Structure formats: C-alpha cells, structure tokens
Amino acid sequence: MSNKISAPRGTADVLPAESWKWQTVERIARRLADLYHFAEIRTPIFEHTELFHRGVGEASDIVNKEMYTFEDRGGRSITLRPEGTAGVVRAAIEHSLIGQEGARAKVYYFGPNFRYERPQAGRLRIHHQFGVEAFGSAEPEQDVECILLQMDFYRQCGLQGLALRVNTLGDRESKQKYREGLVKILSPIASKLSEESQRRLGENPLRILDSKDPRDVEAIASVAMPASSEFLSDTARAHWDAVLQLLAMADLKFNVDGKLVRGFDYYTNTLWEVTAENLGAQNALGGGGRYDNLAEQLGARPTPGVGFGSGIERLLLALEGQGVALPNPAPKLVWIASQGEAAQSHAFRLMAEIRAAGIAADMDPAGRSFKSQFKIADREKASFCVVLGESEIANKQVTLKDLATGEQSILPQDQLIARLKELTSSKV
Ligand code: HAM
Using one digit for the tens of pLDDT, what is the confidence trace for 94-115? Predict the structure, then answer.
C-alpha cells in the first residue's frame, strides 16, 4: 500500500476513543470562563501576515522561522495563526470591543494554532489552545485574575506537580533599559554566542534568553545575568509589587524567575509560565502575560491587555502521565437487539422513540444472530440492551438487560421508556 496518504508530519488525529477527553477539558474550561465572566470569541484561523509581523514581532522566532505563510489566489499574503492573541486583539479593535475610553472586554477562545517547529513529544505543528484575553484594565488584579483562572483550570482537570513562574519586563521604558542592560552584559562575550544570538544582540537581545542553543545556554550561565525587575520604572515597580502581593494573598505557590522573558515581543510588565514536572523537554503547559502596547501597535488607541494561552495536547499528555481519570461525559447507551424481519422494523421504530425521549440508542441492522448483537453492544460500551424477539413482539413485551450486572427483566413495551429514563438518569 505504497500510495497510502498519511497525516502531515507534526499533526495528530483525535480519534473517537480520545475525543471525549477533549470535550471534558473544554467543558471544564468553558464553565470556568463563565465563572470568571469571560465570553467566547471565535476568530479566523488565518489572518493577514502583517498582523503577526506587527503583533508578535518581526524579530521573534515564531515570525522568523515558524509561520505557515502563503499567497492566496488573490495575491494576498496570508498566515495560519501561530497563536491566538494577535487575532483576538485585531478582532477587538475591528469590532470596537476596545477603543472607547474605559472600554473593557474579557474573552476566551479555543482553537488550533500552526507553527512550523521540529516535531517531538509534546511539540506539534498544529496544536490547540484554550486562552483568555482581558482588555481595558491596567490593574494588577486583572493579571492575577488571569493567573487564578489558569491555575483553577489545571486544578479542576486534576493535574498535580505544577510550577508557576512569574516575572516582569516592566513598561516600555523599563523594557528598553533591560534591553540595554542585556546588551552591555552580553556584548563582551558575544563571540561565545551562537551566530543567531549574535545577530539578536543587535535586534532583540531578550530573545537570546529563550535560546536553547547549548552555546547560548553556556554563555548566559557564565555571566551574572541581571533580573529584568532590576530595570523597572517606579510605575512598573508599583504594579509588580501589587501583583506579587495579590498572588501571595491568593495562597498560590509561585516562584519569581527574573530571566523568564517568553517568546513574544508584545509582552510588557507581568508574564508567567506554568510547567508540569512529568512532561519532559516540552514541559510548558501554558503561559501568558500583559501586553499594554499591542493595541496601539496594531493601530488602535492604547488599551491595556493581559491573558494566557494553554496547550490542550500537553495538558492531556500530563494528565495521562499522572494517571488522572477525567470524567467521561458520554451518555448511557441503550442497544437494541432484534431477530427476524418484523422484530427488526419494530426495533427501528422503538429506537426512534427512545431517542425522542432523550436517551442515546443504537442498533445493528445487519440481521446478525443475537449472540453477535450482544457482542457488538459490549464493544460499543452500551449500558443496557433491549431485546426484541418473536415472543416479545407477540406478547407486546421487551426483555431489558443491564449489561453491567447481567440482570434481566421482562416488561410491557409501553413501560420501557419510563424504565429507561429511570435507569439512564442516574448520575455516575
Ligand atoms: P505560548 O507560550 O507560545 O503562548 O503558547 C501557549 C501554550 O501552547 C504553550 O505553553 C504550550 O502548552 C502550547 N504550545 C505552544 N506551541 C506548541 C506546540 N508546537 N506544540 C504543542 N503545544 C504547543 C501563546 O501562544 C500566547 N498567545 C499566550 C498568551 C495569551 N499571552 C497572552 N495572551
């Protein structure tokens, strides 16, 4: 079968045996977003390439190396979104969710993102994120609300062994000072850096701290790197102190990591990342931060913003690694087994009635023996089996079998739906 087509490298199919886990995680996320008063936003999975150049940053690795960019048939440069924030800010500006003095908007999203990265465990070319963005509040409470929501999400999914690292880059002025500080420290050892980081030293020195190149890691370790918080302006320091105080009050375990910069140019002030201890090299479950200059960079009036993105694939990997059993929301299924032509058409009608009563039902109409129909019911993980044979039809009865206990009873057909309602409504 040499001409078989397989999925592109770095992509994954979510098969029926796994999709319920995605639904469960999504349900938990949606419920939490409701509780924290965030409303869903859905934006296109492709945008004008320029949005990411201006939003994510010309000198970031994502824009430089990882974007799926193509020209469409109309000659426009289009990019499959590598992350959610830029598109959400674009939409918020375009539809005036922000832009008015004092406007606030709190939104959340689910969806795929596309990055041309080298695939490995936990790193895909299409990954999915649950993310939130809060616009219009520059207050430290808004940063901490996002962090609390993210941590609540993991807690409700049942994850353990998490580490929350937080840092600040400060405002524009502080960030510029930090950049200059880095250049001053790194310039004397520039020859020890990778070629790419030598180039970054001029363009975007913060990105050097993200580098995984062993030469960069070693060079950075060889000098006393300053923490970004050493360069804060008074305003940025006041914000940062308040964030730390609120976090401490929230009874959250966290560490301040003065070298955490994350891979996007849009961050200002607070930023954070959550890692799971059982994920190996790709251990970042999710991260976020404040981006108070992004709206302005995209042509709107300055509007503060803060949010996070959390990878769903990595979350599921971490849950699996920790042996956490997510609740399966699948409804109890009734299987209808019948024998003989008359019984089969009767069964088909009965199935419609059961479904109309809000109970999940299915059958195999291939006219197999009862024995093989029971086997199929088992394989499909049905909870109950309704058996319709010649004698049942003649007596206007059905045999109802509980497939978990093996218990069996005969009851009048007109009592079946009520009985099934009782049996399937019991909470697991
Ligand atoms: P990010 O850190 O690039 O942030 O991505 C967030 C999460 O998405 C990561 O922590 C990781 O779990 C997952 N992720 C990223 N890339 C991959 C990949 N190649 N394969 C599998 N999972 C991946 C952002 O995207 C920002 N937009 C977050 C944000 C929102 N900041 C403010 N608002």
Answer: 999 997 888 899 999 999 999 9
Fold match, 16-171+233-321 / 334-424: no
To test the pocket of ligand 1, the residue of 157, 310, 314, 315 to mutate (highest count of ligand atoms within 8 Å of its CB) is 314
Question: Cβ(286) to ligand 1 under 6 A?
Answer: yes
Ligand 1, residues 63, 81, 129: which to mutate, most atoms within 8 A of Cβ? Answer: 129
The tens digit of pLDDT for each residue in 242-274 reads 999 999 999 899 999 999 999 898 999 999 999
Which residues touch 309 (CB under 8 Å, ≥6 apart)? 83, 84, 85, 129, 130, 131, 286, 287, 288
CATH of region 16-171+233-321, choose from 3.30.70.1350, 3.30.930.10, 1.25.40.390, 3.40.50.720: 3.30.930.10
Q: pTM of the predicted model, to two decimals?
A: 0.94
Is any ligand 1 atom within 6 A of the Cβ of residue 82? no
| 426 pLDDT tier (thresholds 50, 70, 90) | low
Give the burial class of 169: count Cβ atoms within 10 A of its Cβ; 0-12 exposed, 13-18 middle, 19 or more buried: buried
Quote the pLDDT of residue 425. Answer: 86
Among 326, 327, 323, 318, smallest CA distance to 163 is for: 318
- Report whether residue 133 contacts ligand 1, using a CB cutoff of 6 Å: yes
pLDDT of amino acid 1: 55
Domain 334-424: which topology? Rossmann fold (3.40.50)
